[in-house]
């Protein structure tokens, strides 16, 4: 058995071999050598502990404070380090120095994660996977915080806390609650695109090495002449896409819950360095103005045919973390960390994350979290007017003035780095975006991306989960998908003055039909007095519409 041990299992043995046979002198946190680490200092062999036993109090006081708040989402994850290398010139689009010439390399830190589970949860649950990259650039850190899917459940950041609550635990039972999950999804039809991704084979990636990554949001690129375009970022795995079956995922969850972390660590330790090819999609401002849907909508993708992938570079991971807490648990990603040449778009979810992410890091890690070595922008000099705060780790910028403006040669602004101008003219209001075509791209994913077997598994997976929710939620989920496709169809037919169904939307009906059939075959439930399965060629009317098989 010992011959079959992998690198993660042999970590202690490897550390000893690399360290050498001579141990360090054991000390307190203050560096004082310790003579006895096995026995308390007491008044006699059976007497009480003495307060003067600083070996004990130093150890116990630190132990009492070892844990920090875990991430609200993405709590369970793996990290690694490596480099990004530019392979294609995109300076016509972006002036950021990270892309300044072919062959340039930039150090990176990457964290992969599940989303909803706690730190001790299994790696192989059906869940989106986080895919966050920190580029240590010459102009400060650039954090690209994404997932393994190009879309998300919602498009308005105001819904984010409620959405996350539904993915967590019931406030009374402290158990995962399918009613919470499906109630929210059925009430917010924009979720359907991401839900379709989630319940497809892509919802169970085989570890982290065999999945793609996406910046998901729309960003803005600015070149040296001040020309601007919108863009999306993509990472395509060089290892090839590989997913787990439901049976494999469930088996691993019970026998090897840290499967994905171990797979990544062992691959790097064995010299099998995973890599991804980095691409962008580009859309001009003129194209965005005339686009058929909101190009900043996080629940939708840009067509690769209309906006082809442009190769940029390659990302390679070649170093495991030296210490998980220091380099992964404390690793903090912030989408507002953007070097000159990369700027935010009006994407509502991105705008919300620009505030939320650094705010949660200050809560979780402290006001000076950017001084933690793994978060420090070590390839540039930090010079500002921020001072003090808990855990100030460096020289606090010495005797430099702590106010601006001043007359004493302290840091000055550089006008060439002012953000690009953009015009905003609409009325300020709370705009409802819930009904912005939530089915067309679902239909494309279902009919053009998935094959027949994958479509069948998607419906089976979705029905298997939905059947655990209340019956009225099941009915709403099925009928809402049908109703939304009908609403969109009515708009199209009104424009075209047609009364027949557009064939493109029959695929959405087929998805809803198949989901309904599978759902009710799983739970043997009925709607009203008629069983769905006994309806023969037609499904009962859903909100006034009949879906024909």
TrEMBL record:
Residue segments, region Disordered: 1-41
Domain Catalase core: 27-412
Enzyme class: oxidoreductase
Sequence ranges of Basic and acidic residues compositional bias: 1-22
Enzyme Commission numbers on file: 1.11.1.6
Stretches of the chain forming a coiled coil according to its record: none
Record bears the keyword Iron: yes
Subcellular location: Peroxisome matrix
Cofactor: NADP(+); heme
Record keywords: Heme, Hydrogen peroxide, Iron, Membrane, Metal-binding, Oxidoreductase, Peroxidase, Peroxisome, Transmembrane, Transmembrane helix
Residue stretches spanning the membrane: 507-527
First and last residue of the signal peptide: none
Pfam family, one: Catalase
Sites where the protein binds heme: 357
Active site location: 74, 147
Assigned GO CC terms: mitochondrion; peroxisomal matrix
Role: Catalyzes the degradation of hydrogen peroxide (H(2)O(2)) generated by peroxisomal oxidases to water and oxygen, thereby protecting cells from the toxic effects of hydrogen peroxide.
Family to which this protein belongs: Belongs to the catalase family.
Name the record gives this protein: Catalase
Organism: Oryzias sinensis (Chinese medaka)
